[in-house]
C-alpha cells in the first residue's frame, strides 16, 4: 500500500523541523577524479544544490574541487557526507571527519551520516554522541544515518535527533515500514539507487505514464519519489544529459492513482546488499 502521498506545488525542497533539504541531489558513488569533478561542477551550474559523497567513495577531493570550480557560494549548497564503518570509534571519527573537511575544502557539512550500521550496536551510540559533539561545534548542521533498518532507526532516534535515513528506495523496493517511522518521527528518507540500478527501466506502466506527460521512465520514477512528503533522492548521473533530465521533473504531477500503480511494482528487489548489511527482514513493530 502506498502511504503519505502529497502533491503540493513547490517540492523542489523539503522542510521538517525547520530544516530544509533539496528534493533532488547528485549522487557521486563510483565517480572519480576529473570525471567526478566535472560532474559536480556541471550539476551545480545547471541548478543542483545537493551533492552527496562519502569517505568510502574516495572522491572527496574531486567533489570539493568541483564545488569550488562552480563559483557558487558554499552557503547556497547542501553537502552530505558519510562516515565509513572503520571510522566510527570516537577519536577516529573526529580525525577522519577533519580530513574529509580538508579534502572537501570546506569548514562544515550540512548532513553527516553513519554510512552503514556496525555489527556492534554500542558503536552506534558512541558514534552518534561524537557526531553530536561535532554538531555543537558547528562542524555539521544535522546528524543522520544510512542503511538503518526500522529497529535500528528507532534505536538511533532514542540517542539523538536523527534528521534522515539514506536507504535504497525505488518502485521495486518498498520501504513502507521505514516511511511509517519517518512520518511518526519527522525524518527524511533519502533514496539512493532510485532507478534500481537500471533494473526498473523497461516497465510498461512507467513507459505509458511517461508518454502521457512527455517524460522518460527515469523522470517518472524520480517524480514518484519526490512527490512523497518526506522523500528526497540522489540519483547518480555521469553525463550532462542525464543530469539535466533528472532535475526536469518539476513541471508535471502524478495523480494519486498513478502513485499507487507505481508503488504496486514492488517486488522486494534489493540491489545493494553487501555481506556486512544489517538483517533487512528483521521483524519490528512500531509502537504508537
Protein described:
By secondary structure, this protein is of the alpha/beta class. It has a domain at 20-198 and 230-237: NADP-dependent oxidoreductase domain (TIM Barrel). It has ten helices and ten strands. Helix 4 (121-136) links the parallel strand 6 (109-114) and strand 7. Helix 1 packs parallel to helix 2, helix 2 (60-70) packs parallel to helix 3 and helix 3 (90-104) packs across helix 4. The radius of gyration is 18 Å and the shape is globular.
Task: Please list the strands of the largest sheet in the order they lie side by side.
Answer: 3-4-5-6-7-8-9-10
Top-tier CATH class of the domain at 20-198 and 230-237: Alpha Beta
Which percent range describes the beta-strand content? Answer: 15-25%
Helix and strand element order: EEEHEHEHEHEHEHEHHEHH
Q: Give the CA-CA distance, first to last residue.
A: 19 Å
Helix content: 25-40%
Rg value: 18 Å
Structural class: alpha/beta
For the structure shown, list the relevant keywords:
288 residues, alpha/beta, TIM Barrel, eight-stranded parallel sheet, two-stranded antiparallel sheet, 10 helices, 38% helix
Task: Please describe the topology of this protein.
Blueprint: E1 13-16, E2 19-22, E3 26-27, H1 33-45, E4 50-52, H2 60-70, E5 78-83, H3 90-104, E6 109-114, H4 121-136, E7 140-146, H5 150-159, E8 164-168, H6 176-185, E9 188-192, H7 204-213, H8 217-226, E10 231-233, H9 240-246, H10 256-263
Parallel strand pairs: 3-4, 4-5, 5-6, 6-7, 7-8, 8-9, 9-10
Antiparallel strand pairs: 1-2
